Amino acid sequence: MDIFQYHQINAPQRLLMGPGPINADPRVLRAMATQLIGQYDPYMTDYMNEVMALYRDLFKTKNYWTILINGTSRAGIESILISTIHPGDKVLVLVFGRFGHLLCEIARRCKAEVYTIVVPWGEIVIPDKVEDAIKKIKPKLLLTVHGDTSTTMLQPLQEIGDVCEQYNVLFYTDATASIGGNILETDKWKLDAVSAGMQKCLGGPSGTSPITLSSKIEKVIRKRSCVESGIRTQEHKDGCNEIIYSNYFDLSMIMDYWGPQRLNHHTEATTALYGSRECARIILQDGLNKNISRHKKHGRAMLAGIQAMGLEIFGNINYKMNNILGVVIPLSINGNQVRKIMLEDFSIEIGTSFGALDGKIWRIGTMGYNARKDCVMQTLCALDSVLNYLGYRTVQGASLQAAWDYYEKHNND
Amino acid sequence: MDIFQYHQINAPQRLLMGPGPINADPRVLRAMATQLIGQYDPYMTDYMNEVMALYRDLFKTKNYWTILINGTSRAGIESILISTIHPGDKVLVLVFGRFGHLLCEIARRCKAEVYTIVVPWGEIVIPDKVEDAIKKIKPKLLLTVHGDTSTTMLQPLQEIGDVCEQYNVLFYTDATASIGGNILETDKWKLDAVSAGMQKCLGGPSGTSPITLSSKIEKVIRKRSCVESGIRTQEHKDGCNEIIYSNYFDLSMIMDYWGPQRLNHHTEATTALYGSRECARIILQDGLNKNISRHKKHGRAMLAGIQAMGLEIFGNINYKMNNILGVVIPLSINGNQVRKIMLEDFSIEIGTSFGALDGKIWRIGTMGYNARKDCVMQTLCALDSVLNYLGYRTVQGASLQAAWDYYEKHNND
């Protein structure tokens, strides 16, 4: 190995219009370039407290335990599931895309007895079905993704929250793809736990998972509390009852680290915390509702432009997330070839999907820093050109005109 | 909450001379401010391959599976333990500080049958003892910390590696605190798995854990291979045998993501990867041996200066890590008061320790970006002043003179 062949990072300037990660807001990257401070520095613990407050507002909750997990989105999911599920617990999972399968899989690894309501990809789950299943199964937890990027669907949660409350079922959702770009009401929807990620509508880099926990689920988690033997003192109770399978994801220990006890667990990822704080600060200073409207506006403009190319939209459009669009790849077209030309000749990235949808749909995102008019127009323009180049004919100018028309009508949205 | 009271990150300029995190190399922070690219962008997968190559050189190994875990140091530990240990497996853990206890705890959570060799804090474990224990217990794995910051001790591993090979025991070490600042020879010492962290001698921020796996341990891990149902296709084998307790830390899935298959798992934390690549690149361009010598030189200069204040060193000095020093707090002195004045009046952070050593010793680091003469001199100067201010008398000028003398003698080290 010739080490001098390894140069500085020199990543190409991409426009990331796929399902995420998308381009990070440059203000977030600048915040992350800040020099480190110690993990118990009063400035650091103040920043941790500020992060808790900021994310309470993003999650629309009063939950005290609103904290960061040091890992990607699925680290947040796993921390909640492994800390809450006892082996043998019944959980009911709504599956309407890849990430519903992920919830099942993680729950199974926690040794839950997993029940599912599965609907075809492109649809959402009807709340009535959920009540029937809850009555029959009597689960301890109900797990669902909020917005599943694999299918672009956004599952309505309010009625399900009411049902969960009525039957005393703990209610969890994975809001990685939806938070910041779609309405999410943790307290109003009676959610007991929500986890998220940075790399979608929040405009940051992957690597941190904000979570929030209700006091009800906190009590369930605290029953398995345990202080590490290396830092345990006389004041702490001996040993550990029903120890959970993970140390890294043991939320009672992570709460003791974020809470007033400040009991050492991991070494908080300071740089990631700086970035997460800046993501939330930018959105909240702009206004959360305004941020959601921005996602809706640019998502709809993209939709109008895509439809004007004569392309078919995947899934039930009434339940589409604001920030992502599934586009059925025309039979005459090689989807990967389009993505390759978009990337190589225009430096624009769009996505495909997973499993059965791999190569069948493109996924085009308009989220976070890239929920902007210029990003929408550039993407439509390039895609229209590439399709025509490959022999798929569109009406000249129609796609961009549809977007312009949409913007003109919704100038004040 | 008044969101406009939340200002830009404006962390104070600290000199972090504790046990880590320490100040990140500014070149690393700049690399991390690079804009994102997609996770399957050819530039991204090239960077992932480069990271594998760079960390092979840092770990001194030819192991193909040399990759990053997206989480702090203990995420790397847990990924290896949870992917390797079957419930009921016997593991032998060497415990000579807090982080040995952590290994026991994580192993117990993996449902291992845990055996320990415990020595008093400040000592290391004699290899003869290890052979006796292995003969008696016949463990599947031997786990040990390499350098334990809680006590500053560096456990010699070469002879233990020979013993492990002889008795066919898998050999793991946590090199978080030692890597880059002390000799670590993965292949020569016959280590099957090593995990590390960024925030000590590598000069980066916490949040990423580089790991390396021998082909022998890979085989053990692969037996529990499993492809997520959401992305499983006809080509993959059905279902999962002996599924491990974690999805996030399932190394067979993480290998499939880093390997030529590029099977989606988490969304790689791009910013953290940029930083980890830059840490390794800087050290290797400078020369790994030179980097270790630098840690030795400045660590010894700090030691000379501290001893010249008449302070007692904690632990067996023959086995001290290059990058960290335990200093017994004089009985007449309140250790936390000293740390507070150091931080508030000089903006210099030094550490205390954990458990029984909390408030009994200070821990002073000279590592990563802060293994520098100016950092040593500033820290000695400030500590000497604070001690005298609080009534602990030193010989005027003796501490700094001792450091100067050391540097003069070892100018060319």
TrEMBL record, chains A, B:
What are the alphabetically sorted keywords of the record?
Answer: Aminotransferase, Pyridoxal phosphate, Transferase
Where N6-(pyridoxal phosphate)lysine occurs, the residues are: K200
State the SUPFAM superfamilies in the record.
Answer: PLP-dependent transferases (SSF53383)
Per the record, the domain of life is Bacteria
Q: Where does substrate bind?
A: R363
Q: Which InterPro entries match?
A: Aminotrans_V_dom, PyrdxlP-dep_Trfase, PyrdxlP-dep_Trfase_major, PyrdxlP-dep_Trfase_small, SP_NH2Trfase/AEP_transaminase
Q: Which residues form the Aminotransferase class V domain?
A: 43-328
Tell whether Lipid metabolism is among the UniProt keywords.
Answer: no
Alphabetically, the GO molecular function entries are:
alanine-glyoxylate transaminase activity; L-serine-pyruvate transaminase activity
Family, as annotated: Belongs to the class-V pyridoxal-phosphate-dependent aminotransferase family.
Stated name of the protein: Aminotransferase
Q: Which organism is it from?
A: Candidatus Pantoea edessiphila
